[in-house]
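Proteins fold reproducibly. Consider a sample protein:
=====
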Amino acid sequence: MGKPPPDRRSAPAGALAYTDRAALVLGDQLTLDNPALARVDRGRDTVVMIEAVGEATHVWSHKARIALFLSAMRHFAEELRAAGYRVRYLELDAPGPDDFGARLGACLDDLGAGSLTVCEPGEWRMLAAIQDVCRSHGVTLAVLPDPHFLIGTDEFRRWAGDRRTLRMEFFYRHMRQRTGILMQEQGPAGDRWNFDTDNRAGFGARGPAAVPEPPRYAPDLLTRTVIALVEHRFPDHPGRLDSFAWPVTRTQALQALARFVAERLAAFGRHQDAMWQSEPFLWHSLLSSSLNLKLLDPREVIDAALQAWRELRLPLASVEGFIRQILGWREFVRGVYWHWMPELAEQNHFAHERALPRWYWTGETHMNCMGAAIGQTLEHGYAHHIQRLMVTGNFALLAGIEPRQVCDWYLAVYVDAVEWAELPNTAGMALFADGGRFTSKPYAASGAYIKRMSNYCRGCRYRPEVRTGPDACPMTVLYWSFLDQHTSKFARNPRTTLMAQNVARLDQSERTVIRRTAERIGANLETV
């Protein structure tokens, strides 16, 4: 178990009886159900919202990520004003410091605020910063539990107890039983907790059938203003904005949810792990950014899927697979984040030290799988979970890239990236940097897996089935070298015993050549 989080206890009720009170709404708390708003007296209190350059440069954020947060924040501020709230909104170009904490302190001083109320942030760093500001400015702080999630952090800790390792599957079953979702009198719907084995099909040589176009939201005047601001203030940041079409309001997010359920949920399950170079979105929901900004509530997303299952008789494997991502994995990684921070951010189980190649920011690599996944990411600020886990994350693991650099990259380049979701997924699942505290094995694979699940290997200069020589796929070489390095560990783990047995079948001379080839690739990562 990690260190206790910063103190979240609310101040005594009497401590809030100041003439000037403020409520802080952060950029990923854009819902009228924000509990901080429930304490606001609209006649005298002020809602504070802050844009800060430092939040875009803390990691080298994708232009689309910056634009999404700023546009959604500005739209929500308009919604608050229309609902009668008094809003103090500090735009990016407002005079003053670039740092969020300094801006907040100056704003509280200017308001003469004696107290500040905020819903618990989604990032350890942000919670600590707010507490430091309030402490140094003599402001009473109340941090309220976040009702957006189906399980609170305290309840998660009670579920986790003193276990040294946690597993999402057991947590997911706990949540199913606790909520009654996809449960029948005799047990789980369909007599199975998990339909994951039904949802791993590739497309074959012909590729996917016709994929419905996901909804796109043409930028309105406010969003176009934000896009121009981002292009002006952050011209050297990665990514593009010419295809920006993400939902930035609750109305748009609800429309996106309805479109997904009606047009793509039925076919989502079977091919949810597959990839295809000409299809960046496939049947995925594209709702994670709206959920993480809190434009959508997870309960209404789950309810929409359940209603479609009942009324439209959608395949249970698709519905369960989608719900598992929200009720299971999303709630689980948030609990894991707060349970094991801050040391989770510093874990490095394999002692990997290599630098992140520069082409992670450009996509300019000879590996077509990496170029395609990164190119799509730079264009849209999006890649689905297998592209993140088994392509960009898999390579980073096999190549021995230092986990902190990889985590910063993931936090920077995806529009849905908030640290409570990104850090456990990257450090724990993709990189196994925590040594398996909540995953049972490293998610490592060779080029053969990518060939089976995508069309990325077509036309690539490397051959995925080759592990030595000039045509050897770097993913394949590094995979076999990784197994060779850690054979004794993998042999002791039931989930990786087969991997250890496979590398043990190679003769020593081939293992030596693979190791040397991998060392050469590792020393020249910038040119692969």
User: Anything to note?
Assistant: The domain at 13-144 is CATH 3.40.50.620 (Rossmann fold). Residues 126 and 441 are 31 Å apart (CA to CA). The first helix runs from residue 35 to 38. The chain is about 45% helix and 5% strand.
